[in-house]
Amino acid sequence: MKKLTTLFAATALATLMAGAAWSKTFVYCSEGSPEGFDPGLFTAGTTFDAAAHTAYNRLLEFKKGTTETEPGLAESWTISDDGLEYTFKLRPGVKFQTTEYFTPSRDFNADDVIFSLERQWKSDHPWHGYVTGGSWEYFSGMGLPEVLESIEKVDDMTVKIKLKRREAPFLANLAMPFASIMSKEYADKLQAEGKMNQLNQMPLGTGPFAFVAYQQDAVIRYKAHPDYWGGKQKIDDLVFSITTDAAVRFQKLKAGECHLMPYPNAADVEAMKADPNLKVMEQAGLNVAYLAYNTTQPPFDKVEVRKALNKAINKQAVVDAVFQGQATPATNPIPPTMWSYNDAIEDDTYEPEVAKKMLEDAGVKDLSMKLWAMPVARPYMLNARRAAELMQADFAKIGVNVEIVSYEWAEYLEKSKAKDRDGAVILGWTGDNGDPDNFLDTLLGCDAVGGNNRAQWCNKEFDDLVTKAKETSDVAERTKLYEQAQVVFKREAPWATIDHSLSIVPMRKNVEGFVQSPLGDFAFDGVDIVE
Amino acid sequence: MFRFFLGRLAVLIPTFIGVSIIAFSFIRLLPGDPVALLSGERVMSPERHAEISHQLGFDRPIVVQYLDYLWGVLQGDFGLSIVTKRPVIDQFFELFPATVELSLCAIIFAVVLGIPAGVIAAIKRGSFLDQLIMGTALVGFSMPIFWWGLLLIIVVSGILQWTPVSGRISLMFFFPSVTGFMLIDSLLSGQEGAFQSAFSHLILPTIVLGTIPLAVIARQTRSAMLEVLSEDYVRTARAKGLSTFRVVGIHALRNAMIPVITTIGLQVGVMLAGAILTETIFSWPGIGKWLVDSVFRRDYAVIQGGLLIIAGVIMLVNLAVDLLYGLINPRIRH
Questions:
Q1: A131, A250, A517, B182 — which has fewest CB within 10 A?
Q2: What are the Cα distances from residue A310, in Å, to A452, A495, B325?
Q3: Where does the Solute-binding protein family domain start and stop, copy by copy (chain A) (predicted)?
């Protein structure tokens, strides 16, 4: 604590001497406290916003506003013909931040990359268990321990990563927050001083903002990194003012106490749009909500039946009632902000009479089914019970009798995986890495039957396309394959796609340069305040 | 007096043991694996599980575990936060001054307004003023804190823009924490405008947290005052021709204050409960908000340790109030 106080004092003094009165401070009213400042250890977006997108960079970055990757700390890369060897050319002259607690003596190089990845991978690495109870959840979650063969330093500016098998989403994975590049020099110093825990408390990286201080549950302070390889930021100071209540965040935004806030209350959005001092950005979030039939159980094993039910759902009415305009009806299993989204596909139209006839033609009479409604609100589905009731009414119109069931959340997730479970399940998904594989294969692939594939749907044509795409590194080629896969999906209708919720970001009118991320991140490089 | 003290202490010890048993059982009664809950590790190999289980002492008899826990608690060891890996007690002492500052302001607010309001209501018994004061007190007493806080923020900060919305001080000020009390630290910082900023940030949370104690104190003062005013010595004083101010202010008030002081003491527990909501809504970095945040973070070690520390603080304050009361009013000692 004493050290922290000294740090506060020193920084305060430094800020004063630098002429704090003229500095440009951007205040972000964040929704919660970060779990820590080592992005590899955690999974929450709140933590990534506070650590990964401020202090750190990755080998690849997501191009602002998209889910496509672009060069980051790796200037370029080549992939061997067999798709197993990735050789990264690192960006020269990248400076680590200089802070009160560390002064780097060298530029970024291959050692930093190897350190950052191997500590998460190798259980005998000295930094593998440096935080008691910490685990590298994302690293394991993306299957990297099974995929990686070796990480080698070719020379100071070249790193070669070998894989055990082809893995197309690999590059996208490296752009994710958990793959942030730390300074090995800083880590070595902490290790020598026996203060390894500090790596998770006082971050130091190559990113656009350098960490200054954190007051638990109240405020995080950063200053612009003057030697940032992407150029110094227009704002001098970045402050996260932690404000957990959405209504209070809105009041602070209105009063000008902060410049931008995440996650507004749905009920406040109209007032925000009406306020002349504010502007509101919105776009479809990287998510989807769906109703998954059990395609192995009659009568849902018949595509005509599934199609008929899809046509019976008044999707717009469901979206309006549950989201009050803050979602769009979904056509495809991937959201429109995702690359390879197939615009050409037409959604099932709402035609109850046609649906009724289709059901009769399929020989289905007096159908009674269970409809599972999630017990919790998720971004992609705010009120599943309400959605289920509307669908119940829709289905009643075509003579289908629906019983709504629900279970405790963990039980719901577990029970809905069962291959022989009854009826149709409402569920959804939020993307992790901006790769279509993360939706199409994870949720609909044959391997996922009995797991994430709640429709228990194994279609050879679809699975072949998705698997082929996974093993191809060429993005244009993959795009084509995924577009075809979506055609198969729509034709076979294992789900009724429900909605993509909107991600809504209100901010002061004078904020410029903020780009909404389809991945739901809040990053403030490139942001400016104009008067 | 000493026997009185011992008597109180004799009640306190079993109470504390009871609370410590509840805190100790907390993790073990939650659904899920206590080892996973306490370590924060969600994916564990059986070996790792056994290792952590051993580290945490889960492989020993439950009684031994409890005694060990109690021994640690008595030495100030309330465990490590699962999230920050820092001792719970350290975090508590960092955040406690913010709660104390807010609670003190709220109590002062409640006393300064509540006692005169109660006295006036008692003197003007049955009048419109009395009914107005008591009616307002009833409303204040039944006001949901969260709603009241939001309402004040929206009206006073949002529409009228008289006070800042939340936090302890404007983020433009940045100075080291010396005492932990923002009003004092802002003066010590020597930065122009810092004290005003800290003060204006205190206004709304003080009102919100002070509302319920204010209502309780006003009602208690009124009834104590009414009782005292009907006593013989007051009538005698009046008959002697003393001014109403002297009768009420000097003779009656002093005696009416005895039950009011107990009431004020009892409000400490109420305050801490209220602080949980008030601090959350005003982003006030004290122990109330800390506990709520810990619930969201699933930091069971903090919830467990924090609750026990707070229970201890409430018990100590109640003990102090009892002793104080015993000093003021010797009759209570028997």
A1: A131
A2: 21, 8, 73
A3: 69-448
The reply to whether residue B176 touches residue A8, judged by beta carbons under 8 angstroms, is: yes
Partners of residue A219 on adjacent β-strands? A215, A241
Type and span of the H or E element at B54:
helix B46-55
Q: Using an 8 Å Cβ cutoff, are A419 and A451 in contact?
A: no
Interface probe for B, chosen from A23, A248, A529 (most Cβ of B below 10 Å), is A248
The predicted model scores a pTM of 0.82
Q: Closest approach of chain B CAs to the CA of A20, in angstroms? A: 9
pLDDT digit string, tens, across residues A79-102: 999 989 999 999 999 999 999 999
Structure tokens at B56: 């945490």
Contact residues, B window 77-106, toward A, CB-based 8 Å cutoff: 80, 82-85, 90-91, 94-95
Radius of gyration of chain A (CA): 25
Please check whether residue A33 touches B, CB under 8 A. yes
- Is residue A496 within 8 A of residue A308, CB to CB? The reply is no
How far is Cα A305 from Cα A358, in angstroms, rounded to an integer? 7
Tokens of A227: 């030697």
Distance CA A152, CA A159 (A): 6
Structural contact between residues A196 and B149, judged by C-beta atoms closer than 8 angstroms: no
B166:A133 CB<8 A: no
Distances (CA, A) of A430 to A10, A43, A51, A335, A466: 42, 13, 21, 10, 19
Q: Could you report the per-residue pLDDT of B63-85, keeping only the tens digit for each?
A: 888 898 889 888 888 888 877 77
ipTM of the modeled complex: 0.78
- Distances in Å between the Cα of A383 and the Cα atoms of A315, A373, A386, A423 are 14, 9, 6, 19
- N-terminal to C-terminal alpha carbon distance within chain A: 39
A43 shares contact with chain B (CB less than 8 Å): no
- The CA angle A171-A335-A488, to the nearest 5 degrees, is 90
Cβ neighbours of A252 in B, within 8 Å: 165-166
Distance CA A281, CA B91 (A): 38
